[in-house]
Design brief:
256 residues; alpha/beta; Rossmann fold; 4-stranded antiparallel β-sheet; 10 strands; 34% helix; globular
Length: 256
C-alpha cells in the first residue's frame, strides 16, 4: 500500500513523558475503508498514539498524519472529517441526550435542521429513541457509551478514532457495538480503534499488537495466528496465545 493512500499514518513517532517513552518509534499506515485494531494491555501506549493521531497530543519526535494532514499543526484542515471517541465517555452529565448532541453539532457548525435529523437517526441506531430529554447523568454506563459514540458519529465523519469504545460493556453490548462498527465500515468509514479485549482482534481487518509503547507485530488476524503457530508449534492458537507468543509478555503486564 502506498503511504499516500493512508488515512491514518505515523512515521517513527515517539511520545515521551520525562524518562517514560509512552510510544516508542511506531510507524504504521492504515488505508481507506479498513478496520484496524490496536490491541494490548493498559499502559501499552494505545491511547497516547490515538491522541497524537487526533491532534490532541504533540509527538516528541516523528510525525502523525490524519487524512493527509500533519497533526496537530494541520488539525483544523481535517477536524470536520473525522470523529473521535475518547476512553472517558465524552458526554456532559448535566445536559440531556439531545442537548449533548446539539452541543457537538454546533461545534461542527452543523445547521439545526441537520442536527435534528442526525439526532433522530442516531437515537434510533443506539436504541435511545424517545429519550432525548433524559439527562445524561441518569443513563447507565452502557447508555453513556452509546451516547458518546453517537456524538462522534453526529457529523458523519469519514474516519473514526475510537479509544477503547467497548470498555466495561457486557459481552452482548460489546457485540452490538461491533455490529455498528462493521456497518459503518461497510458504508465507507475507516476505523482505528483500541482494545484490550484480545478476542476483538478477530473482528478487525488488520491488527497491531502493542506492548510497552512499541508496535510488536502487525497483520491480519490469520497472518498473526500463522506467525504465532510457526514460532510456537501450536496448531491454530487463539488470540490470547497469539499475543503471548508474539510479545513474549503477559497480557496483564501493562501499567494500569
Amino acid at each position: 500500500m502506498s503511504d499516500s493512500m493512508a488515512i491514518f499514518q505515523t512515521n517513527d513517532v515517539v511520545k515521551s513523558f520525562g524518562s517514560l517513552r509512552a510510544v516508542d518509534n511506531v510507524s504504521m499506515a492504515i488505508p481507506r475503508s479498513e478496520i484496524y485494531g490496536l490491541v494490548g494491555p493498559s499502559g501499552a501506549g494505545k491511547t497516547t498514539l490515538i491522541r497524537m493521531l487526533s491532534g490532541l497530543a504533540t509527538p516528541t519526535s516523528g510525525e502523525a498524519r490524519l487524512l493527509g494532514s500533519s497533526m496537530p499543526t494541520e488539525r483544523r484542515v481535517v477536524e470536520e472529517r473525522f470523529g473521535y471517541m475518547p476512553q472517558e465517555r465524552a458526554v456532559y452529565r448535566d445536559l440531556s441526550i439531545a442537548e449533548n448532541l446539539l452541543f457537538f453539532g454546533q461545534i461542527y457548525c452543523m445547521s439545526r435542521s441537520r442536527i435534528a435529523k442526525r439526532t433522530s437517526e442516531l437515537l434510533a441506531l443506539m436504541k435511545l429513541s424517545g429519550r432525548g430529554k433524559q439527562r445524561a447523568d441518569r443513563l447507565s454506563g452502557g447508555e453513556k457509551q452509546r451516547l458518546s459514540l453517537a456524538c462522534a458519529l453526529l457529523h458523519e465523519p469519514e474516519a473514526l478514532l475510537l479509544d477503547e469504545p467497548t470498555i466495561g460493556l457486557d459481552p452482548a453490548l460489546r457485540r452490538e457495538f461491533w455490529d455498528h462498527f462493521h456497518q459503518l465500515n461497510a458504508n465507507g468509514r475507516t476505523i482505528l480503534l483500541s482494545t484490550h479485549y484480545l478476542n476483538e482482534a478477530e473482528w478487525c481487518d488488520r491488527v497491531g499488537l502493542m506492548q510497552q509503547g512499541r508496535l510488536i507485530a502487525e497483520g491480519t488476524p490469520d497472518e498473526l495466528r500463522y506467525e504465532a503457530a510457526q514460532r510456537s508449534g501450536q496448531d491454530r492458537p487463539d488470540m490470547e496465545e497469539v499475543f503471548l507468543i508474539l510479545t513474549g509478555e503477559s497480557v496483564s503486564g501493562g501499567v494500569s
